[in-house]
Amino acid sequence: MYDEYLTAKPAFRIFTRSYETSGWAVFFASKPTAVYKKRAVIVAQGEENPNIFYIVRGLVEYTNSGEDGSENILEILGPGNMLNLQPVFGHNPSIATFAALSECTIASADKNTIIKMMQQNHELVMEMLEEMAFIIGGLNRRFAMGTERSDIRTIRVIQMISTIHRDIYKENDPIYIRLSQSDLARIIQTTRVTISKILSDLKRKGVIETDYGGISVVNADLLSKLIKTGLSKTAD
Asked: How far apart are the C-alpha atoms of 59 and 38, rounded to whole Å?
C-alpha cells in the first residue's frame, strides 16, 4: 500500500528516488506507523529522541523557535523524507521542531536498528549520505528563497504541494490543499494581509479558488508559469 506515496519531489529537501529503487522505502514499509494530526509535534526542539522517522504520507514542517518566541520554518518535507537525522547521528538534542503541517502517516525505527541495517547493506549507507546531502541543500534553497518576492515564494510553495498531491496521491485538477492563509503566511514568512492579496490575484487570474480551510488549484499549468514571472508581470 506504500507504493502510491513514496515518490516525491518536495521543496526544499528534494527527494527523487522511486519506491522500487529506494532501500529505505522498502525498509520502512515493514515498520510500525503512527498518524499525526495537523499541528501535532513529532520531535520537539530540544528533545533527545533515539528514533529516525520516515514520512509515508502528508507534509511536515521543520521549525526553529527563538528565545523571543519567533518561529522560523527551515524546511517543508514530504513523503519519502527522513526526519531527526541530525539529533540521532550528531548526538545532540533537536535544534528545531518537526510538526505535522497536514495530517501525516509516519513510520519509525530506532537508531540501533538503522545502524545495523547500514552495516549490512552499503546501498543503504549511500542513500543515507544522499539524504543528509539533501538536508544541507534543502536548507540552502530555503535561505535562497528568502530573497525572492513574496508572490513568487507563495506560488512556489503552492505549486510544490499541488505537485505532491498530483504525483503521489493521484489527484487531478482541481487539487485541494488544506492550508489556511495563516499557514501560508508562516511558511512564506510574511503577513496574512500579504498572503490574502496574493491569493486574491491568483483567484482573479483563474489559477485557484479559496475557502475558509484551504485552496483549490484549478489551473496547475498556469501556476507553474507564474513561478517565472510572478503576478505583477503577467497579463490577465
From this structure: 9
Say yes or no: 221 and 128 in one domain: no
Grid look-up 499541528 returns: 39
Contact 105, 33 (CB under 8 A): yes
Domain boundaries, position 122: 2-145
Domain assignment of residue 235, yes or no: no
* Dist CA 28 CA 211 (whole Å): 36
pLDDT at 10 over 60: no
Q: How many domains does the chain have?
A: 2
Closest CA to 11 of 227, 234, 232, 229: 227
pLDDT tens digit sequence for 11-65: 445 344 444 448 898 999 999 999 999 999 999 999 999 999 999 888 898 888 8
